[in-house]
Amino acid sequence: MSKTIELNPVTRIEGHLAIKVEVEAGKVVNAFVSGEMFRGFEKILRGRDPLDAQHITQRICGVCPVEHGMASVLAQEMAYHLTPPLNGILARNLIQAANFMMSHITHFYLLSGPDFVDVAMIANYQGSDPALLALQNWVKAQLSSRTIVPGGPFLPRYAAQYLQDAGTNFTVLRHYLEALEMRALAHRMGAVFAGKLPHAATLVPGGITEKVTALKISEYRSALDILRRFIDQAYLPDVAAVAQAFPEYFMVGKGCGNFMAYGAFPLAGGSETKLIPSGVLMDGKLQPVNVEAITEDVGNSLYSSTSGRRPYEGETIADPDKAGAYSWLKAPRYNGKVMEVGPLARVLVSYQGGQNATLKSAVDALLLNLGRQPGDLNSVLGRHAARALECKLIADQCAQWLDQLTPDDPAFTDFSPPESGRGHGLTEAARGALGHWMEIGDSKIRNYQCVVPTTWNCSPRDDRGVPGPVEQALIGLPVADPENPIEAARVVRSFDPCLACAVH
Amino acid sequence: MNSLSRRSFLELSTKLCAVMGLSASAIPRLAAAAEELASGQASVLWLQGQSCSGCSISLLDAEAISPVQLLTRYISLTFHQTLSATTGHQAVDTVNKTIAAGGYILVVEGSVPAGMPKACMFGNEPFGTQLIRAAKAAKAVLAVGACATFGGVPGAENNPTGAVSAAQYLKDHGVGTPTILIPGCPCHPDWLLGTLTHVLKLGIPPLDALGRPKAFFSRLMHDQCARFADYEREKFAKTFGEEGCLFKLGCLGPITHTDCALRNWNSGVNSCIRAGAPCIGCGGEQFAAKADMPFITKRRAAAKPA
Predict the structure, then answer these.
(1) What distance in Å separates the CA atoms of residue A268 and residue A92, rounded to the nearest whole number?
(2) Is the ipTM of this complex over 0.85?
């Protein structure tokens, strides 16, 4: 006899996500992942000026606006046959990198942290850290008050086993408080070249509107120094500490096993080399990404559009009452196969390709430190570890990009928008491979399609009934207490879902 | 009770007055507000409709009141979809418990799919229904960001969900709870924090005809712009990266009522126009509304040297 458990809504992700799992004899035997919100950006974009696209698409998501802006300007640059100057390319890297750091730090501490850290343990804190003592006082006052939700937003929570070791728990909790400042600092740093964040102002086809000056380079660098220290001294050790405290999470949350990265962060030198390389890992074999292999099924999605189309020909026709459909997400497939995207996919693609010696040795060191094999990375903890390693890789690279900028050289190449054309922009958002496809006619957007990281990861079943990556990661998961299904929450959050992105 | 001293309340309040542009005479009252809040009396419920969470992210970037200060000294945040530890049915219970208690401040981010209720659901309930329940029991509603105030991108022309702003939706359904509109895409953290704290102690701040706090939205961006002198001298940027007023690139500063040009973003580090990007009017009531109103006026590039 199976029991159905709903996690509806799943909080501490971006947006509106609902999970339904069927549990039998303490294990998940079936899982359904539903996107619960739709706005219709692709339809809203039609008929607009193509240069609106980087502003409109950034509003798809307040967590990854920069990456949508980037995908949009890359699509336009393909359509306009346009290449930004080196300053423009590097400054955009620095903006995108800042947003990655903001997102990764936010994800581990603010979004996933409360699944592992025991906030209630603060009542027993005996130390002298002023921030933790203030938190202790606040929690005590809250719990004895008549406020509606005492301890909100940190309580209530699932009854579960959190970090047991007081030292580790208080360290991570202290870093949670610091992470709030660090993620804001990362945004402040990005805004030096972005104008403001979230929703960057300066991204345009051809580069950025902001100037590159010696002062701006220094402003970015001083913030970066502080962030790098936090990543090295707090983020990476905390991920390792959580991994040591919850080793069983190396064994659960195994995804579909196929991974894809579009790559991002072009390196100076005019080559196609990127800090994060592109590639598809299919059945353990690395192959180049073939854009033509990407299609979107809608058989189980709330659309009446034609199923299985490539993005350039894609449609988005809402059908909220469609029988049998259970999600506002489409189901993207690569050669018909389910693919996982995100930091784990990027790290595995890069690791297998071997282009980046720094990353490869960082992964090997981590595995050695935790006594794990590369195969263990396909798990809840593998995703957290990959995210942290990548955060360091990107932060360290920023210092070199700053050195490569030339103050007062142009950061923008002028262009004349053509009346017609088409292009696609492929990049990476913090949570995975992001692509925009754009068709221009009569100087207007004729068609626009976004295939977004969480669309891949949280996709519903495709037309053949094959479940998406998160659905697959949930099936087989042991759930001890159906009233407090924290195991499922931990699996879902390890993917860092972003639903506003996924549905758009 | 909280260990905070009277002195630290006064310090916080002084900071706050600076954010809100209030006179020093308001400091003692605000200090009292902060003390009262620390005892857990000011509950805030935060709901998200058709939103991108950008206004939540922007609030986390606040400097005037840091997020830790906000959560532990100023408000009792009963629920926030991105921050709350609670999840699943427990989250639904937490929201409903707040609504049953009433008397809180409701912050709402995002629009409502008035023409397609299933396009935004929370725990199997259409967001519009939840919003009405939550707003009726609230002391005041703060509609935050472009989508909640004027519809934003989800409510733009050709949108398939019949999206309207949260504020408009409440009006259309006869909900009479005082509602303040704090636009922007995203909303600037100072605008939200300044308004929230004003509401908590001093009541509803002076509003303009559209329901926006006058303290932040009464003056034209253009009039406060650092490039205004260039405009007067008719020195216009012809393309991106050039010096001069951005008017001929499509800048909407002359019709947008926000104080970005003076306040700046991300702890004052920059702002759109300062960074050479034309204002796209994200704080205005027509933001993104019309398909044939492009953000950027881009002329053909000058012929490239061979």
Answers:
(1) 12
(2) yes
Distances A2 to A5, A76, A461 between C-alpha atoms, Å: 10, 51, 21
pLDDT tens figures, B199-248: 988 999 999 999 999 999 999 999 999 999 999 999 999 999 999 999 99
The structure tokens listed for A410 are: 């142009």
Number of A/B CB contacts below 8 angstroms equals 321
With respect to residue A74, please indicate whether it lies within any of the assigned structural domains.
yes
Cis-peptide into A198, omega within 30 deg? yes
Which pLDDT score, from 0 to 100, does residue A38 have?
A: 98
CATH code of A271's domain = 1.10.645.10
Chain A partners within 8 Å of B78 (Cβ): 148-149, 152-153
Q: How far from chain centre, in Å, is Cα A74?
A: 19
The catalytic residue among B80, B147, B187, B188 is: B147
Instruction: Give the residue numbers spanning the domain of A199.
Output: 3-117+162-503
- In order of their start, the domains of chain B are 8-216 (3.40.50.700), 219-299 (4.10.480.10)
Q: Which residue from B66, B83, B91 is facing A9, i.e. has the nearest CB?
A: B91
The pLDDT confidence band at residue B306, using thresholds 50, 70 and 90, is very low
In eight-state DSSP terms, residue A144 is T
Asked if the model's pLDDT at residue B24 lies above 90, the reply is no
The one catalytic residue in B17, B55, B120, B187 is B55
φ and ψ at residue B88, rounded to 5 degrees: 60, -145
- Closest to B277 (Cβ–Cβ): which among A40, A49, A209? A209
Q: In what order do the strands lie in the sheet with A432-441?
A: A421-429, A432-441, A444-451
User: Stretch A102-115: mean pLDDT, rounded?
Assistant: 98
**For A60-73, how does the pLDDT look when each residue is reduced to its tens digit (9 = 90+)?**
999 999 999 999 99
Residues 6+ apart with CB under 8 A from A160: A481, A484, A486
pLDDT-derived band at A272, boundaries 50, 70, 90: confident
CB < 8 Å to A49, chain B: 294-296
Asked whether the beta carbons of residue A11 and residue B71 sit closer than 8 angstroms, the reply is no
CA angle A95, B249, B264 (to 5 degrees): 50
B187 is catalytic: no
Extended beta strands in A183-306, E state: 203-204, 207-208, 259-261, 264-266, 274-276, 279-282, 285-287, 294-297
Reply yes or no on whether B120 is catalytic.
no
A9 and B123: CB-CB below 8 Å? yes
Whether B62 sits inside 8 A of A489 (CB atoms) is no
Q: What is the DSSP string of B164-178?
A: EEHHHHHHHTT--S-
Tokens of A255: 């995804």
Distance in Å, alpha carbon of A492 to nearest chain B alpha carbon = 12
pLDDT of residue A494 exceeding 60: yes
Give the pTM.
0.95
Structural domain contains residue A136: no
pLDDT of residue A198: 98
User: How many angstroms separate the Cα of A191 from the Cα of each of A96, A410, B184?
Assistant: 10, 18, 17
Q: Nearest chain A residue to B68 by CA: give it.
A: A177
**What is the count of structural domains for chain A?**
1
CB contact under 8 A, B116 and A38: yes
Instruction: Report, in angstroms and rounded to the nearest whole number, the Rg of chain B calculated over CA atoms.
Output: 21
Q: Does residue A108 sit within a domain?
A: yes
pLDDT tops 60 at residue B34: no
Give how far B74 is from chain A: nearest CA, Å: 11
Per the CB < 8 A criterion, the answer to whether A411 and A91 are in contact is yes
The per-residue pLDDT for range A195-248, each reduced to its tens digit, is 999 999 999 999 999 999 999 999 999 999 999 999 999 999 999 999 999 999
In a domain, A346, yes or no: yes
Q: Place B1 in a pLDDT band, splitting at 50, 70 and 90.
A: very low
Q: What's the rounded Cα separation, in Å, for the pair A102 and A184?
A: 7
